[in-house]
Design a protein that fits this description.
This protein is an alpha/beta fold and about 450 residues long. About 45% of the residues lie in helices and about 20% in strands.
């Protein structure tokens, strides 16, 4: 009976906190599904908590190096004649050497014991007929691979397709609306265009991602479409450090090679029959077979032009794609109901502070050092909410690997507190003005 009496007495408080917590949860997931971060301060918080988790607490375990192979083709170029008006030559542009890509896929097709290949190369320009035909012939034989297409810069709902016939997926990154950094990755973009990491996940795990607008599902589990990418493999993980002072102890853990390390440059100049046998012999080399077997092979530009600014520094585009796949694999996009309950509880407590106008930070910490002026009440009220949401975001990241928005929620709660305070004052005034009934 006492519990029932308590609920009746505090019904308005309970309803307010519950409904507002639901609203805050919806705001949170709506914001997460956008591609931008609001302020530099939020970026600093994300960077700080990420670095603390990875390098101080060391809570993250690196993915198994035996599962991945990185092949750099940044320097595998050929010159393509560029033509202007009236089909007149006006110069040359560098494109990825089609012969070298054909040689690589011929090597992979010899045994086909790899797990998957991401070829992150924009194959929009045509080389000579012989080279293009050789590459297309190898694509026709290949298994478990993807090449990219892109969105039209003038129309996000239009595809720009490669000139080759092969399995494709979208390989575009959406930059922060307020900064030039890449922060969040959207799994489905444009007119329901599925991205390379998502398509790769669907193929490897035979699962389906359903894009239904606000709510999305991955194998019947509620899923986000956009999330702040947590880099599990960093650029420094894959590239050897040139530091002889510590006897090369900083050597990268992952298998990272130039294409010339896999297929020597001289192979391209060999007669066709001799080259085919040389590639076959190379493919059956025991060491190379062990490097390729059952691995996800990421092929692309890791050192030159395909470098993107992220929250964590410059990162190669192919490495971003793999990290998105790892995030999907780890369930970063899945909406965990324990996480929803955690959010609801945290937001309920913050809503309680708003409704009761009782602030522990202000009462026991800030109030002891600053005089109770109207300016302090206005400014510190907002700062209090920032502190609460920062704490909630830090705990959220360490427990669930999800960053929360800070500024947006703090502004919302500060405005809501002003509205609640105004309503309480108005009701108090009306109660005082009401006639007393005898």
């Amino acid at each position: 009976m006492k519990l029932l009496s308590y609920f009746r007495k505090h019904l308005n408080l309970i309803l307010f906190c519950t409904l507002n917590s639901i609203a805050l949860v919806l705001i949170t997931f709506s914001w997460i599904n956008h591609s931008y971060i609001l302020t530099d301060d939020e970026e600093y918080l994300i960077k700080g908590t990420t670095l603390a988790k990875k390098f101080i607490v060391k809570a993250d375990k690196k993915p198994d190096p035996e599962k991945y192979l990185f092949i750099n083709i940044a320097w595998e170029k050929e010159l393509l004649e560029l033509k202007g008006e009236l089909d007149m030559p006006i110069g040359n542009i560098p494109i990825t050497n089609r012969k070298r890509l054909a040689d690589l896929f011929q090597l992979l097709n010899t045994n086909q014991n790899h797990k998957f290949v991401i070829l992150d190369v924009w194959l929009v320009d045509s080389s000579d007929y012989k080279s293009d035909s050789a590459l297309q012939a190898q694509f026709n034989k290949a298994k478990n691979f993807l090449i990219p297409y892109h969105k039209d810069p003038e129309d996000d709902n239009k595809k720009l397709m490669p000139i080759f016939s092969a399995p494709t997926a979208l390989s575009d990154y959406e930059k922060d609306d307020f900064e030039s950094n890449f922060a969040k990755f959207r799994l489905v973009q444009g007119d329901h265009f599925k991205t390379t990491p998502l398509v790769m996940y669907e193929k490897l795990y035979n699962k389906k991602y359903e894009d239904e607008g606000f709510f999305n599902y991955l194998e019947d589990k509620l899923s986000l479409n956009s999330f702040i990418l947590d880099l599990r493999i960093w650029d420094y993980d894959i590239k050897p450090k040139q530091d002889t002072s510590i006897n090369n102890l900083n050597k990268a853990k992952y298998s990272y090679y130039q294409l010339a390390d896999i297929i020597p440059l001289g192979f391209s100049a060999l007669p066709r029959e001799i080259k085919e046998q040389a590639i076959k012999d190379r493919a059956n080399d025991s060491i190379l077979k062990s490097i390729i077997k059952d691995r996800i092979i990421v092929v692309g530009d890791f050192e030159d032009s395909d470098i993107h600014q992220t929250l964590y520094g410059a990162t190669p585009g192919p490495l971003i794609l793999l990290n998105v796949f790892l995030a999907i694999e780890a369930g970063d996009s899945i909406i965990n109901w324990t996480f929803v309950l955690f959010l609801f509880t945290g937001y309920w407590l913050i809503s309680y502070k708003c409704y009761t106008q009782s602030d522990l930070i202000d009462k026991y910490i800030i109030g002891r050092f600053l005089p109770p002026t109207s300016f302090k009440t206005m400014i510190m009220g907002f700062i209090d909410y920032l502190i609460y949401f920062i704490l909630l975001s830090v705990i959220s990241f360490f427990l669930f690997n999800v960053h929360l928005t800070i500024l947006l929620l703090a502004i919302y709660m500060q405005l809501l507190e002003k509205i609640v305070a105004w309503i309480i004052r108005k009701r108090a005034t009306q109660a005082e003005a009401a006639p007393v009934m005898n």
